[in-house]
Design goal:
- The protein is mainly alpha-helical and about 130 residues long.
- The chain has one domain.
- It is built from five helices and no strands.
- The protein is globular, with a radius of gyration of 16 Å.
- The protein starts with a helix and ends with a helix.
């Protein structure tokens, strides 16, 4: 059951990410300075980022499941809180560091950190519900 819960948690977060970035597409493209065509779509698009992000979600969900197991986190509210904490206090600072050294706008950090925080919260929810 743990493998299935990890896969569902990863998929849930990945799907949320698709909705998050569709809703914030224009500000994200502007902040990331990705070259786009007349329709606002990236010029050099590749499926690789989508594949890599799916793999990353599986890795994060797997580690969160392990952490939850070690910490005895089984309640939904604790799962959501722990997930939000992982996103906000572990992943978001790393995003900020990478964007700062890359001289990227802070707006990009806010957008990407929002996904990390809420995406991990969704993982925490799903890992404790399943």
């Amino acid at each position: 059951m743990s493998f299935i819960s990890v896969m569902i948690a990863a998929a849930g977060s990945w799907i949320f990410g698709a909705m998050w970035y569709m809703a914030l597409a224009k500000p994200w493209v502007a902040a990331s300075k990705i070259e786009v065509d007349d329709n606002g779509r990236p010029v050099d698009s590749s499926p690789l980022p989508f594949v890599m992000s799916a793999i990353a979600m599986i890795i994060v969900a797997g580690m969160m499941r392990h952490m939850f197991s070690m910490a005895g986190i089984t309640e939904v509210t604790k799962g959501i809180t722990a997930g939000l904490g992982v996103g906000l206090f572990f992943i978001s600072p790393w995003i900020m560091i990478n964007n700062a050294y890359g001289m990227r706008p802070f707006k990009l950090t806010i957008i990407d950190s929002g996904y990390a925080t809420f995406g991990c919260g969704i993982m925490g929810l799903l890992l404790t519900v399943l």
